[in-house]
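Two entries, shown back to back:
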Amino acid sequence: MTTREEQLLQQFQSGEVGGFDAFYAEYGSRLYRFCYRLCGSRADAEDLTQEVFLAAFQGIERFESRASVATWLCRIAIYRHRRLKNRGENLALDEMPDLADNKNDEVTKIALESALTALPENLRIAFLLVKSEGFKYREAAEILAIPQGTIQYQVSEAITRLREMLGKMDEPKRKEKSNAM
């Protein structure tokens, strides 16, 4: 943990005036972005983000500083998301944020978003943690409480499946081009 994380955590744990606000300012937008990509809708992401911060506030004394705060918050988000999903609550994967490298290529973004939603949940979560949120494999493995080798496999498998799906989506375009010539 960094000195900044320790300071924010101490302010948050002690109930210091502004402690929660500083904690939220540091982690809120990143957590919301992760929740948004996990859930697929703004409303669900907002609800999940609030639940995570409430759970963090209620369980702050149990936080062990072996992992980073971001790792801990993402772990809470994943477990809460799975619990909501298992209860059948509204978790529509209808609007994913843009993940395409080329921000102007709407077709690519839509295709990638569609392909991401088609991935099995375990592969999508692993891919989002490592490739979108920038966690190291070790950190993602800690968040999911699985071996590092498993997370590496899941990310690799997600990439392979995304490439397959995106390739299939691109086939009609290639056929059009070849027919036009």
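entry 2 starts here
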Amino acid sequence: DMVVIPAGGFYLYNSVEGMVIRVDEKGMPKARIEGLPNSREIGIDSKGNLLVANPVMHSLLRFNPAGELIERYDGQTFLSTVVDANDKPLGVKFNDLEAELFRADKASPTVTVSLAKFPLMTPKERKAHYVAAQLIGSDAKKNVYLQLIACDKKGVIHQYRVLRLNSEGKTLAQIDMLAVAFLSPRKKTITPDGKVFGFRSDKKSWFPITYTFP
């Protein structure tokens, strides 16, 4: 994984070695954080601190740019590296018929607050259920983006939706994306101006794809 540091440089995650390296704009190493195998994702807050989601450790970790651990949210596997306007981590839990957005207000011990619920609205005869609920990023206005996917037992996709939410979980806009596996980008991120951005490949070329909200 990789994260761009607004003040300059990058955080680079090596999943094989379980290590994050902070490098400057020229690629020169400035800090090294080890002991992070099997981490799911890395992210960044407004102060340039690194966030690491590690489900094996059941923790979300926050490090300063020098590589020092400054905060640890233990006992959590659902918190993401996406933060709200106050740099508090957000996360999503879901079951077959409902997804729920949470905010972590305190670490050590972790205290979370429910912000919003998102019931599945597909017709009952389709027999669909949520198979994924994931925060995929935030924009320059500190809005956050929630991806919700629902399928039936045969794997047919009945909902492929991305919601734009404010920091309190209020829905500001939403889009239903093209649910064709070989056309849809597998990994998506959010651009500063609030577009969903990703790539797909036909084994010969890479195609950048953006989705805009109404």
